[in-house]
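Z., the sequence and structure:
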Amino acid sequence: MKSSYRAIALLLGLSAQLAAQAQVPPAPDPPSAAKRPWQDRIWVGGSVGASFGDIDYVQLAPSVGVSVTPKISTGVGLSWVRRDYSGSPGLATNDYGVDLFARYRIVPQAFGQIQYSYTDYEFPLLGGGTADDSYSTVLVGGGWVQPLGGRASFVLSALYDVTYDEDERAPYDDPWVISAGVVFGF
């Protein structure tokens, strides 16, 4: 039941998420596209997320990547998440993380992804205050990019934490990481 509430809260929080990406990795082009200069194959982006209620949540997550080939891209992302707990005045946690990922475009709209993530996170203690821990994971899954018109697209991804152990302390309640957002190319 706790996972269901968390999933609903996640989906509501994602509705407030806005992702900005300087260049969506290109769809497969003619073979000459593989010969483009490396500067033309770099893309930058990231996301900003927010949710407000019993727990106020703010996320910043910039990323940069390179299209290795028209179908393969790889990159790195950083993340920062802050949570303020309204039921406990002055109680707030901060999480910091780094992601290394690779994507393979199966068709122009669908991609497979593998990702290594490291997160240093804080959690509230029952007696007050916070403690911190770290978590490393390997995520595997895929996603869908749906053009909305112009240079905007809707992106949905579902990644599974293959190293998840419910008996181990982790920043998440279940092994699925589902994200959605709107991407704007500049």
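Residues 1-33 have pLDDT under 50 and may be disordered. The chain has two helices and nine strands.

Let me know what you think.
H.
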